[in-house]
Write a sequence for this structure.
């Protein structure tokens, strides 16, 4: 026969579960924020690399734009 749980015990379990969900969500939100900051830093570094490569290239502005737009249309 299944053991019946009293209303008070059930309420305590629900409260503990809610607290755990709140803590877990806070940790998740913090982890997502940290990840976004790291991805933003990576994007900024990639953009700097592209700018340096363009600046040191012997290609003209028109050649670079044509290359980039051709690459987009091929995909």
């Amino acid at each position: 026969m299944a053991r019946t749980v009293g209303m008070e015990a059930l309420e305590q379990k629900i409260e503990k579960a809610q607290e755990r969900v709140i803590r877990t969500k806070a940790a998740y939100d913090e982890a997502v924020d940290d990840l976004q900051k790291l991805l933003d830093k990576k994007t900024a570094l990639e953009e700097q690399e592209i700018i340096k490569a363009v600046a040191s290239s012997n290609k003209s502005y028109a050649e670079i734009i044509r290359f980039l737009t051709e690459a987009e249309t091929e995909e």
